[in-house]
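Objective 1.3, modelling of assemblies. Example input:
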Amino acid sequence: MKVIQSIEEMKKEMRRHRHERESIGFVPTMGYLHEGHLSLVREAVKRTDCTVVSVYVNPTQFGPNEDFEQYPRDLDKDAEILDEEGVDYLFTPKDSDMYPNEYRTYVEVQDLQDVMCGASRPGHFRGVCTVVMKLFHIVGPDRAYFGQKDAQQAVILKKMVEDLNMDIAISVLPIVREKDGVALSSRNSLLKKEERSAARCLFRSLQLAMEAVRGGKRESSEVVNLIRNEIGKEKSAKIDYIEIVNKNTLESMMEIKQGRTLIALAVYIGKVRLIDNMIV
Amino acid sequence: MKVIQSIEEMKKEMRRHRHERESIGFVPTMGYLHEGHLSLVREAVKRTDCTVVSVYVNPTQFGPNEDFEQYPRDLDKDAEILDEEGVDYLFTPKDSDMYPNEYRTYVEVQDLQDVMCGASRPGHFRGVCTVVMKLFHIVGPDRAYFGQKDAQQAVILKKMVEDLNMDIAISVLPIVREKDGVALSSRNSLLKKEERSAARCLFRSLQLAMEAVRGGKRESSEVVNLIRNEIGKEKSAKIDYIEIVNKNTLESMMEIKQGRTLIALAVYIGKVRLIDNMIV
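Predicted structure (tokens):
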């Protein structure tokens, strides 16, 4: 596996692979890799000739009071893992190359960026769209892989690619969970022991919601109440949002329509903000 | 010359040329072609294997009270001219394909978009950046050609390409003028006969400014006054802005520095807004 920091070198390598008509699979990450990331990496390795993973904690998607500094990092370990998985390139650009002082250009997907996580994290998805657009231009992949855990991100990036006429297929792969149901997230490492246990309330409440829907409940407000009550049992948990939306347009749904509805939540466990979701 | 309306067909053709490793030159226009456009087209034909010209009056770069409806159009004549110039592809996408109802994604270059024409036309450069980004993704050129008449547009698009790490070289070619000095513009066709004569005041005032600078004047405010007085002599002329700025950053310059300063103006002649500029 080649580890590349320079944007120009990365572009040059990718041009070579494109000229040889190899398919390029790309997994953009913020590193501190877990099995969720690795499910994407394995799919890319299996499906494309040349697999590129980027590890870059993107400053423009963090708000001024968010956890950019605290976000967990371990590049050496990430490199070791990716090498074992058969990845061809690890791209680790520098902040000063990605966003030089005179940097000015931003990409945004209106409306979709303003709800759910976008409402709690203004500017977050603009940062995500901008960095992904940059990485897409640098790597030039045929296919890029994202996790369903960041459901809103996946919807927004698909929309961006479609609207801006990019020839990149987007694969969104299922959430990978711990045995106790907690969705894998690099931020889980920031949880204290008791908090890690409390974090189970996200999945537990989603399961309750799912059961209620299976049992015939369709009224979104009732399902939201179920979730709210379940999370309320954990005293370290503070709800950021519980949303029941169309899984493609992210528009609020008063009534759940099976196969088309996304139940998404963001919950603070202590100071750590976790997200989880389920398509019902 | 192939005339293509479908985005997917255009992409398919361009993929073929890229696979054959031909260089692609691209001239995006809003049509109603004049010698200014043709200077770009001829350069592209001369310098690249495959030349693509788009004719698309982009609705997102016009404000609600601007001249989108009145903007002159003559696609048949444009096609005839481009065919004679040896252009390979004329791309004429439809509004409903470029901006379907659920369209949401925009690209913007902050700060640079807020001054000069951007101050008078809020949202204009966001529309320009967005459509050019879309066209760049559809055509995938190695080199794109723009006119110096739209000086701010050229600065912004260069910045966009650099910031978003696109592999597209941008050529900016000199303003082409009528014998009497008026910069060629599709909007000149909207001028009444007396207005066409009044329109000479833009170039005349720029020439006066240039002479003053050659004569040693460096104080921007004095040069602005010279221009203001000259344009004031035309009673159908109404100044939108006169700016003396750094030619790369568009930052105001109190003092003119030779080779680095752009004098740019926008003037209404009757209802038609004309722009012109000079690097001194």
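The first helix of chain B runs from residue 7 to 19.
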